[in-house]
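Feature request, filed as a ticket because there's no other form

It would be nice if the structure record came with a short human-readable summary line next to the tokens. Right now we just get the raw output. Example of a typical job, pasted below so the devs can see what we mean:
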Amino acid sequence: MKPDQPTTHSWIELSVTVPEELSDLLVEEAVSITGRGVICQDLPCPTGTETRITMYLDQAREREWMEVIAAFLQGLHAESPFRRPFPVEKNMIPHENWAEAWKTSFKPIRIGDRFVVRPSWETYSSRPSDLIIEIDPGQAFGTGTHATTSLVMEGLEGLVGKRSVRSLLDIGTGTGILAIGAALLGIPRVTGLDIDPVAVATAQENTARNRVDGKVTVIGLPLEEINGTFDAVLANLDRGTLLSLSDKIRSLIAPGGTLIVSGILDTQVDAVQNAIGLSVLEIRSRQDASCTWAAVTFEAG
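Raw output as currently delivered:
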């Protein structure tokens, strides 16, 4: 799956063809690196079946990610019985082409029982109980179309239906979609956090557009500079970031509070669960075109 947000620069489309039995290993590595899904295509070949795995890399991080992927492929090839090099194809997708294709594909989407996310340029006939989130992503991540975003939103809706939540921290807020959803559910004090100044500006615009800027504060600080505790914390991040920030994330949850994490594959749940070290209330998963994503709800003692 392609990234669900536009950008002001180009994307790198990288395709690697490997024997089918090695495809799961490469898919997990690609998702861990990029934090996004991939496209898998089975290809018949004389020796059986091969899988072409296509991933999309932010051009701004091309060198970094290409070095990591190249090292992984080298190790994968060395440990496999296959002597033929894995075919690799790389293409540039200009921003102009990407942005137009992305915009035409972003339509209103229902998430959970009450949330409806719609782009600012689309109309929608709502039900009386609907909570409409109007999003203009700009250059930031988060439109609700990705499985991890919807898993967190559904978990948040279920949480508010079961217990009182007076404060919430959304780590890596992106467009602000989760923070906005929290405010619409009635949480009175919501903080959206992101280190990307573009995301901070986009989230501030979206909170104002949805008339929840009185409840939601969007700030651009590193997580390490955040103090205090929150009744609920949301962390829709990638596996590596969750592992590296697990101690700090845990310290921000109030006693008896709740943490919902996603951005991980179902095969990565155990590692994240061990790093967080809290009681697990629920694990939910969702299959998309390339892999199975997971969300884990924890409770602080």
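Something like this underneath would help us a lot:
Helices lie at 23-34, 62-79, 95-105, 147-162, 177-184, 197-209, 239-251, 269-276.
The domain at 11-99 is CATH 3.30.70.120 (Alpha-Beta Plaits).
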